[in-house]
């Protein structure tokens, strides 16, 4: 089960400062509330590349298509749905040698294709990376770790931010011997969640054994500003 921890983050407080766009001509108090939820990633997306350079365009295309075909077939046999696989079209470019003071010489062709895979169960990530290695994939472009229920965690972070703002407002009002009135204005800008990105790597067996992603965590943040009236 995903472990969550709510973190109360210290924030700056403003007393008697009005909103830039609105003139507030009554006693008021503004607080900024912050909330965080720390979640363990439970799914991942990774993208791989197949790159081949040969003397002819036909050979380069054939080699790349063969590798991608084997990889896609292996993924489907492992139970990966078509909707979780995205394969790009073939990209073919001529390769030239540029001798000094001479015309460029065609020396071959470079073909490449990319495949992106969404892994719904993060415990199977290494399995799919090993499949890529066996099938001849020669480059991992990136691995992105995410959470499947991000909206739930974002709501928890938002509620934590609201609670933080309310607690600070009550504390400030009490400290200045004032009574906290109604909420006059709420300012909210949704915070974006940053997934965990792992670096690209060449496909080799020694580096495939790393399970460091299993210790990763994702921090989901939210923030709210609230303007309260102060009672006389």
Which short descriptors sum up this protein?
232 residues, alpha+beta, Translation Initiation Factor IF3, Alpha-Beta Plaits, 2 domains, five-stranded antiparallel sheet, disordered N terminus, SIMPL/DUF541, signal, 26kDa_periplasmic_antigen, Oxidative stress defense protein
Write the layout of secondary structure elements.
Elements: E1 5-8, E2 13-15, E3 28-39, E4 43-54, H1 57-77, E5 85-87, E6 91-97, E7 105-119, H2 125-135, E8 139-146, H3 150-175, E9 179-188, E10 196-198, E11 201-202, H4 205-208, E12 218-231
Antiparallel strand pairs: 1-3, 2-3, 3-12, 4-7, 4-8, 5-7, 6-7, 8-10, 8-11, 9-12
Helix pairs in contact: 1-2
Protein name: Oxidative stress defense protein
Organism: Vibrio xiamenensis
Keywords: Signal
**Unreliable segments of 5+ consecutive residues:** 1-21, 205-210
CATH topology annotation of the largest domain: Alpha-Beta Plaits
Secondary-structure-based class equals: alpha+beta
Rg calculated over all Cα atoms: 27 Å
Task: Give the overall average pLDDT.
Answer: 83
Name of the CATH first level of the largest domain = Alpha Beta
Largest sheet: 7 strands, antiparallel
CATH superfamily of the largest domain: Protein of unknown function (DUF541), domain 2
**Portion in helices:** 25-40%
